[in-house]
Amino acid sequence: MGETFTREKVARYSSEFSGCMFLIMFIKLSVVYDDYTTSLSIGLGLGLLIYNYGYISGAHLNPAVTMAIIMRNIPDFPLSDPGQIIMYFISQYLGGIFGGIIASIIGGEASAAVYPTVFRSEDDVNDGARLVQAFIGELFFTYLLCTTVCHTATDKRQGGNQFYGLAIGLSLSLGIACIGPISGCCLNTAVWLGTVVPALITNQVEYGLSDIWVYWVATFLGGIIAGLWFN
Fold first, then answer.
1. d(Cα 69, Cα 188) in Å, to the nearest integer?
2. What is the pLDDT of residue 36?
3. pLDDT confidence of 1, banded at 50, 70, 90?
4. Residue 137 pLDDT
5. Mean pLDDT, to the nearest integer, of 125-129?
6. Cα 167 to Cα 153: distance, rounded to the nearest angstrom
7. What pLDDT, on a 0 to 100 scale, did the predictor assign at position 90?
């Protein structure tokens, strides 16, 4: 327990919390108030957070990225430290929820209502083909995000580069542009949880959450495949 909560590791958890908090705020507010450059705003926002917190925690800011790093089993994030791994997940999810609530206070009910969903109408709820499309989209673009992290931020051959944050952020922007209309481009279960909780609190989940499996299974699977494929 003592090794899990050293001063250095608490700083890491705090960075993951803060980074996820701001990421969800960027998403909820930009979707409502940024009419033309939403994907770029969110992607550049992620890049900013990576540059801010990367030197402290690695700036995973995404359980799928954490899963990819677990598969990599690098010295900075070893499998032999399960306490740290668990605290990263907890910090990301708590930060996401807190960010969603703060964004909803700032942006009102319109921001509270923003969350990724496959269902845009009543007909979509029973549309199996649309769910499969969304699942495949979330899987492949989560893989793209996580493999970009692995290539630009975990390999010593790329050590010292200053483009890693921009590359990772732009991979998210591309995902939003490509599959945003299909699945909402979540790629991150902390984003899903952090955006859905305020929508639930304000009773703005119109078509239910039966598509939850798309966002949790596809994103974790994408992260696992990215880490293993890199290895």
1. 14
2. 84
3. low
4. 98
5. 90
6. 10
7. 98
Sequence-ordered alpha helix ranges (H) in the chain: 7-33, 38-57, 63-72, 82-112, 128-153, 164-183, 189-201, 212-230
CA distance 195 to 40: 19
Cβ atoms of residues 116 and 199 within 8 Å = no
Residue with tokens 């890693």: 164
Tell which phi-psi region holds residue 81, choosing left (phi > 0), alpha (psi between -120 and 50) or beta: beta
Write out pLDDT tens, residues 65-91: 999 999 999 999 999 999 999 999 999
Sorted by sequence, the CB contacts under 8 Å of residue 70 that are 6+ apart come out as 77, 79, 85, 227
Q: Report how far residue 11's alpha carbon sits from residue 167's, in angstroms, rounded to the nearest whole number.
A: 25
pTM of the model: 0.96
Tokens (6 digits) for 2: 């003592």
Chain centroid to CA 75: 23
Angstrom CA distances, 152 to 12, 91, 102, 169, stand at 20, 24, 32, 12
Angle between helices 38-57 and 7-33 (to 10 degrees): 180
The CA angle 186-191-101, to the nearest 5 degrees, is: 140
Q: Which residue has the tokens 């703005």?
A: 204
